[in-house]
Amino acid sequence: MAELFKGAPVAKAITERNKQELEELASKGITPTLAIVRLGEKPGDLSYERGALKRAEKTGVQVRQFVFPEDMTEEALLAEIEKINQDSGIHGVLMFRPLPKHINEKAVCEALAPEKDMDGITSGSMAGVFMDTGIGYPPCTAEAVMEMMDQYGVELKGKKATVFGRSLVIGKPVAMMLMARHATITVCHSRTRSEDFAEAGKGADIVLTALGRAKMIGADTLGEKQIIIDVGINVDKEGNLCGDVDFDAAEPKAAAITPVPGGVGSVTTAVLMKHVIQAAGKTEN
Q1: What does R_g of the chain's alpha carbons equal in angstroms?
Q2: 260 belongs to a structural domain
Q3: What distance lies between CA 34 and its chain's CA centroid?
Q4: Which of 42, 85, 92, 207 would give a disulfide with 118, using CB separation of 3.0 to 4.6 Å?
Q5: What is the CATH number of the domain that holds 248?
Q6: CATH code for the domain of 104
Q7: Out of 1-10, 30-39, 54-63, 125-134, which region has the weakest mean confidence (pLDDT)?
Q8: Are residues 151 and 247 in the same domain?
Q9: Total domain count, the chain
Q10: Within 10 Å of residue 31's Cβ, how many Cβ atoms?
Q11: Which residues contact 175 (CB under 8 A, 6 or more apart)?
């Protein structure tokens, strides 16, 4: 039976560290503050926002919500982003995406100051991940993956890791973060040949999935005694939440596996608070 890498203990440990750092900042008169920018009332955005607000309350981070109508103009949104950039009382920003289709999302993301980008949406933040510049922060989910493995004592140096998915949200940044920890990386995606896809999965010590396709990774793509980190959040044919990995098929073979729900997703808001506190700490320098 595989060890279950659950997210709740990891989120709790991060939150306790966050509280200690926040107390140090409070003693210097600094209150870490997050701006949440949301257009419209998408259920997914609202769900994540509720989770972020709860985590902020537990941690002690202040939150300012900037909620705008879905038909807001690009010009008006850019003006609000500039105000947030100039507001020294706001240390970090979480902006929900995708933005409405009439808005140039790339232009809006690039308008955000990289040092206030808490979720890796600016090119400045991604340069920080790829070039280790110290500017900005990686996407929260990508860092949550690393926090999960650290908390459960996964040794990365010299290990073979296969990442299924190449998005800028998870696949690419987490591959770079794994490489920075001296793992040997293979990245598979929608254009990878099926035989190579399976071979890469079976030959890995660590398998990380971020495909967004329910139960796509089955026993035929997995080896024995692997560590499986499933970042996918999907709905199966029965209407139940599930990951990219067929858990029932994978669990008997794995050394360790993350459940969905209850795995990586529950760590992301704790990482978000960590980023806000780090950003606030940099303001005193």
Answers
A1: 19
A2: yes
A3: 16
A4: 92
A5: 3.40.50.720
A6: 3.40.50.10860
A7: 125-134
A8: yes
A9: 2
A10: 13
A11: 163, 166, 185, 187
**3-state secondary structure (DSSP) of residue 92:** strand
pLDDT digits (tens, 9 = 90+) for 113-150: 999 999 999 998 888 888 877 778 999 999 999 999 99
Instruction: Single out the residue of 112, 120, 122, 117 nearest to residue 86, CA to CA.
Output: 112
Give CA–CA dist 220/249, Å, rounded.
9
Task: Assess if residue 61 is contained within a domain.
Answer: yes
Domain identity same for 235 and 151: yes
Render the burial of 74-104: b for 16+ CB within 10 Å, e for the rest: beebbebbeebeeeeebbbbbbbeebeeebe
Whether residue 261 is preceded by a cis peptide bond, meaning omega within 30 degrees of 0, is yes
Residue 260 DSSP code: S
DSSP classification of residue 178:
H
- Using the predicted structure, report yes or no on whether residue 244 has a pLDDT greater than 70: yes
